[in-house]
């Protein structure tokens, strides 16, 4: 059964998904159009196995859905508003020193 996640949990899931550059690239690709895994793997230049692991993470975070299309599965953003959120994040101005890193970079729960 699906449940509505509290706001903080939603933001944490989104942050977890965006914490990996490959998952960011997948989300941006799906922002453009739904796609089949083989096409995504080719577009991103990664193995299907690696892509599958990232898609599983994005599904678990509730950001993408798998849509059966005949014998194949197509992936798309779970909600069109995610595309708008990605656009807003991409265009946000963030001031970060070029040589700075997350103070807790060794902590996998950070950044």
From TrEMBL:
Give the protein name, as stated in the record: HTH-type transcriptional regulator CmtR
Give the HTH arsR-type domain ranges. Answer: 3-100
Q: Name one GO molecular function term.
A: DNA binding
**Source superkingdom:** Bacteria
Q: One Pfam family, short name please?
A: HTH_5
Q: Which PANTHER family match?
A: HTH-TYPE TRANSCRIPTIONAL REGULATOR CMTR, TRANSCRIPTIONAL REGULATOR-RELATED
Q: Tell me which InterPro entries the record gives.
A: ArsR-like_HTH (IPR011991), HTH_ArsR_DNA-bd_dom (IPR001845), HTH_Metal-responsive_Reg (IPR052543), WH-like_DNA-bd_sf (IPR036388), WH_DNA-bd_sf (IPR036390)
